[in-house]
Amino acid sequence: MSARPACRLYLAVPAGPAPAALDAAAAGGDLAALLVRGGEARDLAAVCRRRGIALMLEDRAAALAAEGADGVHLTDPKAYDAARRLLGAGRTIGVACGGSRDAAMTVAERGADYVLLEGVELLAWWAELMEVPCVGRLAAGADPAPLVRAGADFLLVEDAAPSAERVRELNRAIAACARA
Known about the structure:
By secondary structure, the chain is an alpha/beta fold.
C-alpha cells in the first residue's frame, strides 16, 4: 500500500459565508474543501475554483449544477446509490458513516469518494486497510493529534465564521501532528 498524503483541512459552515470572507479565510493556508450545510453556495463557487477548494453541498445532490458545486456530502449512507445515479461518475460524493464499518465498506465498494468516520479507532482501522480517503470530525476545542495520527486524510471542522487566522491555526496543528 502506498503512503497516504498529508491530512488536509475540510471546513463545514452552516450557510455559505460571503465570498470575500471565504477568500480571506483561504488566505490562511491549505483548505481542501468547504462543506455548505444550508443556504446557497453559488456565490462561493468562483472563490473555491480560484483557490482550489472543493465546494461541497450537504444532502443536496440535485442542486449541484445550479450552485456550481463540486460534490455532495451525504449524511445518510442509504442515499448514496440515488446520488450516484443522479450525478454520475464525474462528481464527488462523500458519505458520513458514523461508527459503521459496514456502511463505510458498502459505500466505498460502490464508489464513494470519501467516508466520514466517527472515532479514532475506526479511523485507524480504515486508514490501515482501505484506499478510499477518510474524514475525521474534529470536535470544537478538541486536539487534532489523535485523528491525524490515526490516519485521517481530512479533518472536518465546523466553523460558522472561518477566518485566515483560524485556518492558519488549524493547519499549524495538523502539521505539528504530522511531524510528531
